[in-house]
Amino acid sequence: MAAIIGKKEVMEAAQTSFISSTYWTDRIGPIAAITTIKKMIRKNVPKHLEKVGKLVQTGWKKLAEKNRLKINVGGIYPLSHFSFDYDNPLILKTLYTQLMLNEGFLATTAFLAAFSHKKEHVQKYLNATDKVFAIIAESIKKGNPEKYLKGPVCHSEFKRLA
Description:
about 160 residues, mainly alpha, Aspartate Aminotransferase, domain 1, elongated
């Protein structure tokens, strides 16, 4: 949501020109935004997002230790991420995504908490991550994680195609 506000004389000057607006005379967008903000305050959504993100970050760390994997965990709790601390992190990241798909999760090495995430969802996700971390650890031990890949290695960063 956005609003253009200013002193009366500045706002009156806008009357002699054309200003485009997404909402123009539509009241649904602003009402939806206000209602959403009120619900976020009433339900204390930020606290929930932090709690869920902390569960995920703590889970990643424990599971990496359990499976003897070297990872780096970072980000604020609601916007968490981890990376593999090996010479071939993109191969491992790709393998993680591939194996998590096999477990029923469309996942990468980032986690964005949502209000709909409940403790049982996080537990199912971490159970799948445990299985996947075990496979990745074994592939590292054998020295051949790329042999487990069924497709190309992911890209390292966003780049323009043109």
